[in-house]
Amino acid sequence: MKSTQKNALVKVGFLLALVLCATPYVSAPIALVGGFLFTLFLGHPFAKLNHKATNILLKVSVVGLGFGMNIHSALHVGREGLWLTIASITTVLVLAFILGGWFRMPRKSSHLIGSGTAICGGSAIAAVAPAVDASEKEISVSLGVIFLLNSLALIIFPFVGHLLGLTQHQFGMWSAIAIHDTSSVVGAASAYGEEALQVATTVKLARALWIIPVSLLSAFLFKSKGKKISIPWFIGFFIVAMLINSYLPLAGAFGTAFAASVAPAIADISKALLVVTLFLIGAGLSLDKIKSVGFKPLILGICLWVVVSILSLLAIVH
Question: Lowest CB count within 10 Å: 14, 56, 222, 281, which one?
Fold first, then answer.
């Protein structure tokens, strides 16, 4: 078969896989693993567009999920998880500093891995990196560690949750605290149940707001004055979506019709987009990226992940 024909077939197969992921027949973990296996055996026909598409689809799908949530319930869950969030972020960042020194790792690398574990994975690393003036290698290694563990979490956490008999609320809280990226938090929680999804999304996005104070603190600790700090703007749109879903039904017949038909449809489409996003995330994970991570950063990431997972689970269950 000619190279051009093979490339065309791979592109068609990739697009068909994306369409399949948008159906109810493919779960989040299967989409992630499927994306990785597709790229491993057939290559990625749209590698240059993958990161940009993933970034956009994740934010759009998260905002859309807001149309399936109530602001009053979200505020209650957010208050409940506030102190656990503060405690876990503080513990992870301090532990990253201690273990990073023990492993004799560069301070910036250990701080980036700690920030990604403590807050919201790659988004936190992307925000903190310019604040500490991190090098491209430090950023790529940190992202590699978080991305690998984040992918494993999507598969492991629902299994452990069922094994331990966690309630929907407990699992939602636990996944929001202990899983790195928003994509895998939402993916794991959606596989566990609707209530888990709502709890996890609310707590995780509230947690993501800690990017701002942690970035400011990082700039101070690393003496990086005048560095740009990224603000996760899509969280604001998520809140607006929840407000619309909560209060528009009070505006009359139009609002009632919107809440009964349009809002649930947007939420369902957003869940499908999230599964597509996870396929793209899996497709972006290559063996070369896994090998480039290195031993010490990976061990640090695993240690931080295990500690925050166990401590947060104990706090939630008890």
Answer: 56
Angle, helix 136-164 to helix 263-283, in steps of 10 degrees? 120
Contact 30, 21 (CB under 8 A): no
pTM equals 0.76
Lowest mean pLDDT among 7-21, 39-53, 84-98, 231-245: 231-245
CB 291 within 8 A of CB 282: no
Number of C-beta neighbours around residue 257 at 10 A: 13
CA-wise closest residue to 278 among 172, 169, 191, 176: 191
Nearest in space to 92 (alpha carbons), one of 122, 121, 117? 117
φ/ψ of residue 121, rounded to 5: 60, -130
- Residue 193: phi and psi, rounded to 5, are 155, 165
What is the C-alpha end-to-end distance of the chain, expressed in Å?
61
The one-letter code for the residue type at 69 is: M
CA distances from 276 to 36, 54, 289 (A): 13, 9, 21
Within 10 Å of residue 303's Cβ, how many Cβ atoms? 17
Mean pLDDT of 133-137: 76
State how far the alpha carbon of 196 is from the alpha carbons of 123, 175, 191, 264, in Å. 22, 9, 9, 17
Does the CA dihedral 35-234-219-210 come out positive or negative?
A: negative
Q: Dihedral sign, CA of 252, 256, 262, 263?
A: positive
Which pLDDT does position 228 carry in this prediction?
Answer: 60
Question: What range defines the domain where residue 173 resides?
Answer: 3-317
Length of the chain measured in residues: 318
| Residue 130 amino acid letter | P
Quote the number of domains for the chain: 1
CA–CA separation, 296 and 282 (whole Å): 23
Alpha helix locations (H) across 133-260? 136-164, 168-178, 182-192, 194-208, 211-221, 234-247, 253-257
